[in-house]
Amino acid sequence: MDYQYIVVEREDPIAVITLNRPQQLNALNWQLVGELADACEALDRDEACRCMVLTGAGDKAFAAGADIKEMAGQTPVTMLTGEFNAWDRIRRVHKPMIAAVGGYALGGGLELAMHCDLIIASENAKFGQPEINLGIIPGAGGTQRLARTLGKFVTMEMVLTGRTYTAQELFQLGLINQVVPQGQHLERAKEIARTIAEKAPIAVRLGKEAVLAAFETPLEQGLATEKRLFAMLFSTEDQKEGMAAFVEKRKGEFKGK
Q1: What's the whole-model pTM score?
Q2: 66, 99, 100, 193: which is the annotated catalytic residue?
Q3: Catalytic, out of 103, 131, 197, 252
Q4: d(CA 83, CA 31)
Q5: N or C: which end of the chain has fewer CB within 10 A?
Q6: CA diameter of the chain
Q7: Mean pLDDT of 13-17
Q8: Is 198 an annotated catalytic residue?
Q9: Among 157, 177, 197, which residue terminates a domain?
Q10: How many whole angstroms separate alpha carbon 122 and alpha carbon 49?
Q11: CA 78, 63, 25, 15 torsion: positive or negative?
Q12: Do residues 48 and 92 both lie within one domain?
C-alpha cells in the first residue's frame, strides 16, 4: 500500500515501519495513526513477517506527541468515535512489535512506544507525558500502562507534573529494555527482532498473549490463560520440531505450523 506519513520496509522475516513526518518531529496526526494501524494489521496477517520494528524518521524524535493543531478543535464526540480509535487496532496486533526510540517520545509518542512489546532507546531519547500542560491528560493508554509498569507514585509524577525523563531514568525504572549509544537504537531493535523471528511463530504469538493477560486479568484468570495456551502449543508441528531439535542437539527449524 502507498502511505503518506509512514514508510514500510520489508527485511523478511522482519519489517520496519517508520513514522515519516520529520519536519513535524513525527507528530501523530490521525491519518498517520490510521496508516500505522493499516500497516500493522497487514503485517500481522502476513506469514512472512514474524516481528515488526517501529521507529521515527530523522534523529530528533520518535514521535514528539499528537498533532495539537489537529486536536485543538475536536469535541468529546469526535474523540470518542473518530479516527482516534485506530489506537485500539494497534493494541490488538498479535505479532511482537519493538519500538526503536531516538530523540523525543512525548505524549502520544510515549504511548505509542508502550503499545509495543519491547522498547530500545538511544541514549539521547527523552520521554514524558506533558499533556497536563495543555489542560488534558494522556488519552491513548498512558495513565494505565505507566501505572502497571512503574507503579502509582512515579506515574502520578509523570502525569501531574509533565516533566521529561531520560532514557537511563526509565531504564532504571523498568520501562525500557535497553539503552544504546546514540543512533544505534534501530539496528539494535532489528537485531532483537531477528532473534525473535527465529523462534516458533505460534509460540511467540501465544507468549505475547499470555504476558499481556497478566496486565489485564486477575492472577487466577491469568494462570488459567497461560495453562491453556501452553497446552495448545503441544498440538503444533513446531513444538515437535523444537523438542526433537533439542534432543538431537541441533537448531530447530520452525515453520509456524
Answers
A1: 0.94
A2: 66
A3: 131
A4: 8
A5: N
A6: 63
A7: 97
A8: no
A9: 197
A10: 25
A11: negative
A12: yes
Average pLDDT over residues 114-119: 97
Instruction: Look up 35 and say whether it is catalytic.
Output: no
121 in the same domain as 91 = yes
The residue-averaged pLDDT of 179-206 equals 97
Is 187 an annotated catalytic residue? no
11 is catalytic: no
Cell of 132: 497536563
Count: domains in the chain: 2
What local confidence, expressed as pLDDT, does residue 70 receive? 77
User: Can you give the residue range of the structural domain that contains 82?
Assistant: 6-197
Same domain for 215 and 178: no
Please check whether residues 215 and 193 belong to one and the same domain: no
Cα separation, 129 vs 244, in Å, equals: 48
pLDDT of residue 69: 81
Question: Do both 166 and 207 map to the same domain?
Answer: no
Q: In what order do the strands lie in the sheet with 165-166?
A: 61-63, 104-106, 126-128, 165-166
Rounded average pLDDT over 112-135? 96
Question: How many C-beta neighbours within 10 Å does residue 112 have?
Answer: 29
